[in-house]
Amino acid sequence: MVDFGGWDMPVQYSGIIDEHRAVRTAVGVFDVSHMGEIEIRGPQAAALADFVTTNNVRKLSLGQAHYSGLLYPHGGFVDDILVHKVADDHYFLCVNASNQEKDFEHIRAMNRFDAEVEFAGERYAQLAIQGPQAHATLQKLTPVSLAAIKYYWFTDGQVSGTPARIAHTGYTGEDGFEIYVPPAEAERMWHEVMKAGVEFGIKPCGLGARNTLRLEAKMALYGHEIDASISPLEADLAWIVKLDKGDFVGRDVLLKQKESGVKRKLVGFEMLGRGIAREGYEVLLDAAPAGWVTSGSPSPTLNKNIGLCYLPTAHARPGVAIQIVVRGQPVDAVTVETPFYKRAK
Amino acid sequence: MYPENFRYTKEHEWVLVVGDTGTVGITDHAQQELGDIVYVDLPKPGARIEQGKSLGSVESVKAVSDVYAPVSGEVLEINPALADAPETLNSDPHGAAWLVKIRLSTPDELASLMSAADYQAYVGAEK
User: Fold this and answer.
1) Cα(A309)–Cα(A291) distance, rounded to whole angstroms?
2) A327/B62 CB distance under 8 A
3) Fewest CB atoms within 10 A around its CB: which of A129, A337, B14, B38?
């Protein structure tokens, strides 16, 4: 067990590779109750949510969610988050565990609107049920028609007789659901999900598999691909930045970055030589230091060693020969298209 | 669980000494902590290694870890099977997945290592 932002969490149960494969081929369940929740309510809830995030909150329909950035005025990330529109005057934010206090203070500080901001982490536990059999597993526990919930939509209903927010979202690159339940029900819910998934080969999954899964899908992890010094345009997340939606925190800087171009950009790579890139390893271009690895791991799905790194923008494209300094030794690698893994629809 | 005839380090290596030859590996506790092992880097036969210094590394899906020499000496042999089957370290860390054999230069060093019972208590306390 590792200490993760004050939470004692399992890195693995049956093994990272085993758990990873379960999610890609069957179904896995993750206890992600450490994730934080922040609620924004009131007549100007949308105005505040839109002002503090990069994506366009006004485009969300009731019951819809999207991925977004919470930025500092200088354009770096406070956090990356999911924004759910519960009602016209109610937005539900799912944020990273270790950032939740910081996020809450940041949003409050930016609240020049008539909106109420609530730190709601204690009211929610979260389970992620992910994999091609996630739907079949969860459907056994709820009267809600899961087929009716489109990808990145959610609905409030009952799971195993308990009120739950059921979101068709995930952090694995696989189909699946994330359910928010009262903490007092979480343990029972975990066992119910495990029981429901037996016939589909469900495996309990830890943080280790969560990391390899999200890396294959090229989903950012705060503290790795993104942090206060990185802008969404550098992190290849321009798709969550809606510069034309009106003013928002960080917009001025992003607008300038868009006009003049960013100096560095995130790009994926595969190791060609023997070795696994790890976070913080140096990246060489023509034998000269040029960037750093943000995440690296063996890819259980591809049977290759993959990673993400920052490189000068001109070189941050597929097909560039690079070297990763692995424990003092430069090892050949090549930049590639991402995501590394994309599920068949 | 932990063989009585091995001696153990705080860094979770073991050594089995027969005559002046020590066979070195990592403990079951180490493989559990590391998880799925995917690479093993070992010194070449003939290399001189020193107690407490890194003799190589084992790498799992999640992290890379140094292996520290439990005793000083000269590397006689490395386990040829591990390059192609590093996962043996997960399934048989105290047996088939030995890492290196060393000719001990300073047998007195063994006195600084833990017995099986002490090691068992040590990893029990660490949790």
Assistant:
1) 7
2) no
3) A337
